[in-house]
Amino acid sequence: MNTARGRLPDEVRAMWVVRTSMVSPQAIDRVVELTRAYGFNTLFAQVRGRGDAYYRASYEPRAEALTGQPADFDPLGYLLQQAQVAGLMVHAWLNVYYVWSRPQRPRSPLHVVNRSNHWIARDMRNRYQMTTAGRVEGVYLCPSNPDVRAHLLQVFGEVARRYPALDGIHMDYVRYPYEGYCYCAGCRARFRAWMTAQVSERQRREVDRQARRSPLAWIEAFPAAWDDWRRDQVSLFVSAFARQSRQINPRLILSAAVYPSPLGAYRHKLQNWTLWLRRDWLDTVLPMAYDPDTAVVMRQIAQSLQAADGRPVIGGIGAYRIPPESTLNKIRTLRRLGARGFCLFSYDTITREGLSEEYLRRLAPAVAFSG
User: Which of 73, 25, 40 lies closest to 351, judged by CA?
Assistant: First the structure.
């Protein structure tokens, strides 16, 4: 058995903690207090939300939200200290390719959006957007860029090395925004180089001739290969991340938040998470089954469990958009299906960033009961 996977509790009872609850010692104390008091055993705490750091970082700037805190305040380090006393497991939650979502640029010149504009993923018209609109949340990095991959491995490796007490590392946004990205010049050139090794010289000359009129000629000529190639770019990072993490700390539980439909993730987000489980690059996945309808959640988690083929699946519940009674129904449904546990999105919304216990109080009987 994978020794890291074996460290998962029999039932993971978790919450995602967004970075807005990681901005002070007092806020973190409240996270730990409520998590322990209401029967949860695991936290997925966001420490890289928008290409910034809620930990001691060398490769990315300190989060702007920490400006008012002492320079030596380390949110992740402090959380680990408090959680250890409380008997809670902590997974560092890092967004991968998604790095910005405001109309104004980051203040720090060291932020990747400011210092490496050529790393940014673009659509067919060579555009990108700073904020959420349509199917794109904001600025994404280009998954096929080897410099992006190297940078991300530095970021993730630093977290693994600097915090040996971590129980796991959790990836989010380890995907494309949707199938309409990335069409940057680098992607097009790298895809052409990959394809030329697989086609005849006559085909190469013909598509290159077409490319003089259309920069998308190679993509238009081989659309299925284009999708496969882009999926492979994300998987290249996941495999390298897994290999690096196992070398640094074999105890780390490696996981990802994924789209709940395996086929939808594969086709529309170019996220081949079933491969990642089969190859043991990940120990578990958290399908984000956020639909308010419990029947939809049941279908999505059942599909995920089937695709996982016996590997642990922790169901993600969109508690932020439903009343406590609906969350209770979904927890019970996950247990009946045989999921390894549940994770609520998010601590911050259901407690109003620690100001209210009412939602957790109404969940308490079901959370505490795991039989």
Answer: 40
